[in-house]
From TrEMBL:
<keyword id="KW-0479">Metal-binding</keyword>
<keyword id="KW-0378">Hydrolase</keyword>
<feature type="region of interest" description="Disordered">
    <location>
        <begin position="1"/>
        <end position="32"/>
    </location>
</feature>
<dbReference type="Pfam" id="PF01557">
    <property type="entry name" value="FAA_hydrolase"/>
</dbReference>
<feature type="domain" description="Rv2993c-like N-terminal">
    <location>
        <begin position="3"/>
        <end position="53"/>
    </location>
</feature>
<feature type="domain" description="Fumarylacetoacetase-like C-terminal">
    <location>
        <begin position="59"/>
        <end position="256"/>
    </location>
</feature>
<dbReference type="GO" id="GO:0016787">
    <property type="term" value="F:hydrolase activity"/>
</dbReference>
<protein>
    <submittedName>
        <fullName>Fumarylacetoacetate hydrolase family protein</fullName>
    </submittedName>
</protein>
<dbReference type="InterPro" id="IPR018833">
    <property type="entry name" value="Rv2993c-like_N"/>
</dbReference>
<dbReference type="Pfam" id="PF10370">
    <property type="entry name" value="Rv2993c-like_N"/>
</dbReference>
<dbReference type="InterPro" id="IPR036663">
    <property type="entry name" value="Fumarylacetoacetase_C_sf"/>
</dbReference>
<dbReference type="InterPro" id="IPR011234">
    <property type="entry name" value="Fumarylacetoacetase-like_C"/>
</dbReference>
């Protein structure tokens, strides 16, 4: 974000070959909508405000119970077919944005996840072409009002409030499918580790999920697939800071605030 106007940019690693991003180069245009060009403007990363790296044009597609240990900790079986739900694009917020704690719930939970960002319109994608439709990967927190999830029976309200889908801090576009399928996910609350798992433990792989989801709904550029959360989900309270880290991508941090 520069000069008050949202703008896309390329996050760059330190010139000395370090692993930590330090600068961002501004782009013209939208990488998910068409050609882009570097403007020549470069800023220090800590001098800009990072927004959600993508606002889905149509939908966020969630996958429930895609880690066996997570299903078990909530007393559920792993479903015979992928358990799919939707979150509205109005639930998306960025790094540093507050997660609002609605007065309608008494049990708000974090769920750290790897998110897949779709890069092209697609339907009925065969397994061998899944890599072609993925733009990149980011970090997500699938915020869930656990008590509403239980009482409602369906998950639209429990997972669909404004602010219930933090995404960021950026999109990694260089990971292969194989690499994305073996990344460590760690969630902390006020610095204390609550989740520590790996995408290698997903019941269904990224490829399987894209094939299944695209079999019944058209995916559009900018759509996001949340691939499921490892074991260790639990409550977060107003005033607490929740961070989700996917190794090799980045850390997404948000503060919980009472609405």
């Amino acid at each position: 974000m520069a000069g008050g106007d949202p703008q896309y940019g390329v996050v760059e690693l330190a010139e000395d070959g370090g692993s930590h991003p330090e600068t961002v180069s501004a782009l013209t245009g939208d990488p998910l909508a068409g050609p882009v060009q570097l403007t020549g403007e470069r800023r220090e990363l800590d001098s800009v405000r990072l927004l959600a790296p993508v606002i889905p044009r149509s939908k966020v597609v969630g996958v429930g119970r895609n880690f066996a240990a997570h299903a078990a900790e909530l007393g559920n079986e792993v479903p015979a077919t992928p358990l799919i739900f939707f979150k509205p694009n109005t639930s998306v917020i960025g790094p540093g944005d507050p997660i609002g704690y609605p007065p309608t719930t008494n049990e708000l939970s974090y769920e750290g996840e790897l998110a897949v960002v779709i890069g092209r319109i697609c339907k009925e994608v065969p397994a061998e072409r899944v890599a072609e439709v993925i733009f990149g990967y980011t970090v997500a927190n699938d915020v869930t009002a656990r008590d509403l999830q239980k009482s409602d029976g369906q998950w639209a309200r429990a997972k669909g409030y404004d602010g219930f889908c933090p995404l960021g801090p950026w999109i990694s576009t260089h990971h292969t499918l194989a690499e994305a399928g073996d990344l460590t996910i760690t969630t902390t609350v006020d610095g204390e580790v609550r989740q520590h798992g790996s995408t290698a433990l997903m019941v269904r792989s990224i490829t399987e999920l894209v094939v299944y989801i695209s079999s019944f709904t058209t995916l559009l550029p900018g759509d996001v697939i949340l691939t499921g959360t490892p074991a260790g989900v639990g409550p977060m309270l107003p005033g607490q800071e929740v961070s989700v880290t996917v190794d090799g991508i980045g850390t997404l941090t948000n503060l919980v605030t009472r609405l």
